[in-house]
Design a protein that fits this description.
heterodimer; A: 140 residues; mainly alpha; Cytochrome Bc1 Complex, Chain D, domain 2; B: 175 residues; alpha+beta; three-stranded antiparallel sheet
Chain lengths: 140, 175
């Protein structure tokens, strides 16, 4: 029984390392330097800058939405490494997602982000509107 | 009746003795000024979430281009235009959309995250034009370019001057 607990704990630990734990200070600093200028300090956004607060987690409900978050130009073409981009994405979702974030949110990994950002989005608005239709948002 | 007369006369005389006619003005003035201090009456734009960090010690002249916070500023200093490095001059609106970089504070040797919020809605201030390009990138890296008019988050696109708001301590990658 005890060994089972140890194995379970080990598995959990390995899982969290593979997904990359979020370093709060580093992630917040990267958010400030590479995202906040447009998305504003609390993720509210402004005019044409999409709102993250209370919304960003909705995209995780469909695979195309999950891919979208790593493929938008601001994310995909940023100078952040795959590891740091995955971390800041996870941080944004955990910090601003609120109720929109699914309960069993699977963290982005550096590998996943690396694959997704290799194909940055070009017609972002069209794709966003398409996603919103799929998510049942209407046009907004 | 006599009693009431005496009572009111006495309290009126007491009031007149213990207060002056100007004390009403003083009280009223105090109320107005006091309430202005508690509830700001003038719409002064201040950058959000400033205040979470303990302000560091700083030295130098905030109206000079070589002041440490301005290591990547491109524009007129709000400090020379009736505002300060973290507040817009009266009548100008601070853009919530901004460009952000880091500058090293020579006093404590640490790198701080600086938000260069533009103040907008009034014609160009014209005083203290600075162009420091620490970390500035070409326009195709628009999030790190200071040659842009960042009056994107305001009602008016007219640029007036730039602030340098301290919003955090930069993460030390060596940690």
């Amino acid at each position: 029984m005890r060994s089972l607990v140890v194995v379970a704990a080990l598995l959990l630990y390995v899982g969290s390392v593979a997904a990359g734990p979020v370093n709060e200070a580093r992630a917040h600093s990267n958010y400030q330097l590479y995202c906040q200028g447009c998305h504003t300090p609390d993720g509210t956004g402004y005019k044409s800058v999409p709102r993250l607060k209370g919304r960003v987690g909705n995209y995780l409900r469909i695979p195309a939405g999950r891919a979208y978050l790593a493929r938008v130009p601001g994310a995909a073409t940023s100078i952040l490494s795959n590891k740091d981009l995955a971390e800041v994405l996870n941080w944004i979702i955990l910090t601003f997602g609120g109720d929109s974030t699914p309960r069993h949110f699977k963290h982005y990994t550096a590998q996943e982000v690396g694959k997704l950002r290799a194909r940055p989005l070009v017609r972002v608005r069209e794709i966003r509107e398409q996603l919103h239709r799929e998510l049942g948002y209407g046009e907004k | 009746m006599n009693f009431l007369d005496r009572f009111f006369e006495k309290s009126a005389r007491n009031l007149a003795r213990s207060t002056s006619r100007r004390s009403l003005l003083r009280g009223l003035g105090g109320m107005l000024v006091g309430s202005a201090a508690t509830f700001p009456l003038l719409p002064v734009a201040r950058a959000a979430d400033n205040g979470k960090i303990k302000p560091p010690q700083e030295k130098g002249d905030p109206t000079a281009c070589d002041y440490w916070r301005y290591c990547a500023i491109d524009g007129y200093l709000c400090s020379c235009c009736g505002g300060s490095y973290d507040a817009c001059p009266p009548g100008a609106e601070m853009s919530s959309v901004t460009w952000i970089g880091t500058c090293r504070n020579p006093v404590d040797g640490r790198n701080y995250v600086i938000s260069y919020n533009d103040c907008c809605g009034k014609s160009s201030c014209g005083a203290c034009l600075c162009n420091n390009d620490n970390g500035d990138r070409p326009l195709y890296r628009s999030d790190k370019a200071n040659d842009l008019n960042w009056c994107l988050g305001t009602n008016s696109l007219v640029y007036h001057c730039s602030t340098a708001v301290l919003i955090g301590v930069a993460f030390d990658q060596g940690k």
